Amino acid sequence: MRVRGLLAGEADVDICLRRYIKQVIYGRMNIQPDQFFKILADLTRLRVLTLLSREGELCVCELTHALGEVQPKISRHLALLREAGVALDRRQGQWIYYRLNPNLTEWARAVLYETTEGIGKQTPFNSDRHALSKMPNRPGRACCA
């Protein structure tokens, strides 16, 4: 948590407190089944979650490349996943990386694992993994701007 000194503006403190509260809430998350299945019902979110499930952590540029979608669309879906507590993000330099929330309930993790395994060889999920594996200049190796 980063809280600036007394001279900092209220907006800075408010942003930091909201981030801290979200971290506490996500640390104790208990997603409801209806909410989780609504998240999985969208094909773009399902594709993102299967990639995160298999790859661990990916930056937005990797997801846009793998799914062949524009950045605003992917970012909109990632924001929903983050707000629901299903995914977490971290900033490193100019990139934002996403991963599954390690505190996701056991039943939700099991559903996601079984879904990922069951659909992994079907289109578009296998195409997403193939496109990601062929992406030039992936973060960690080079710039992906």
Describe the structure.
- It is a single chain.
- The protein has 145 residues and is mainly alpha-helical.
- The chain has 2 domains: 1-29; 31-133, Orthogonal Bundle (Arc Repressor Mutant, subunit A), CATH 1.10.10.
- 58% of the residues lie in helices and 10% in strands.
- The chain is built from 7 helices and 3 strands, in the order αααβααββαα.
- A hairpin with a 2-residue loop joins strand 2 and strand 3 (95-100).
- Helix 3 crosses helix 6 (106-119) and helix 4 crosses helix 7.
- The chain is globular and about 35 Å long.
- The model is unreliable at 1-8, 24-28 and 141-145 (pLDDT under 50).
Radius of gyration: 16 Å
Task: Please state the second-level CATH architecture of the largest domain.
Answer: Orthogonal Bundle
How many beta-strand elements? 3
Percent strand equals: 5-15%
Order of helical and strand elements: HHHEHHEEHH
How many structural domains are formed by the residues? 2
CATH superfamily of the largest domain: Winged helix-like DNA-binding domain superfamily/Winged helix DNA-binding domain
Helix/strand-derived class?
Answer: mainly alpha
- Largest β-sheet summary: 3 strands, antiparallel
CATH fold descriptor of the largest domain = Arc Repressor Mutant, subunit A
